[in-house]
Amino acid sequence: MRLTGSCRAAATAIVALGFATAAEADGGIFDEGRLGVYEHDASVFGHQKESGADIGVEVLFKPFNFLWEPRLAIGGLVNTDGETDQAYVGLTWTWDFVHGVFTSDDGLYAEATLGGGWNNGLINVTDPVLSQERKSLGSNVLFREDVDLGYRFNPVWSIAVSYNHISNADLGVRNEGLNDIGVRVGMKF
């Protein structure tokens, strides 16, 4: 049985959250799990060629006690149209900047993630027809940045608008980059 992209993403989410919950029961290392839906290759700061939606899964570890307490983030995005999928790792910094918006437990926050990742996209598209439909990413290993603006309902649940970008920072011959924008829900363990 071959799983479609969205089925693979759902299976990955269930497994990731299951591992995180099990690890937490043992005094664990995980802090938060997230599930999101993104517009793939959104035309924000670039030209859209690829299509579909991305289903994203992310697990964040407990904060490190240095450099404004970042959390290690590990995640992935699976494209529902069978185009570029991603897996990534990075450091995430969170800033809570408004507390008590509607209740004593809620608030607004911003996040930034810097890291790298792997993708299964095309590296060097030379076919004129294919170049209208697929990006030339220049490498399967790329830099990845993410920024989020979110609302925390309570100490457990949050929702955020998320924007992420992958590219090789012009270190390769090709560097079309890929942008995703979407919404994701977070659950603290």
Measured as a percent range, the helix fraction is 10-25%
Uncertain runs are none
Mean pLDDT rating: 87
* Radius of gyration of CA atoms, rounded to a whole number: 17 Å
Portion in strands: over 45%
User: Between the first and last Cα atoms, what is the distance in angstroms?
Assistant: 33 Å
What structural category arises from helix and sheet content?
mainly beta
Main sheet specs: 8 strands, antiparallel, barrel
What is the spatial order of strands in the main beta sheet?
1-2-3-4-5-6-7-8
Give me the oligomer status.
Answer: single chain
Task: Give the number of DSSP strands.
Answer: 8
What is the count of helical runs? 1
Q: What is the chain-wise order of helices and strands?
A: HEEEEEEEE
Q: What is the overall shape?
A: elongated
Could you describe the 3D structure shown?
The chain has one helix at 5-25; strands at 30-39, 53-61, 71-79, 86-99, 107-119, 141-152, 157-167, 178-188. With 189 residues, it is mainly beta. The two termini are 33 Å apart. An eight-stranded antiparallel barrel has the order 1-2-3-4-5-6-7-8. The chain is elongated and about 55 Å long.
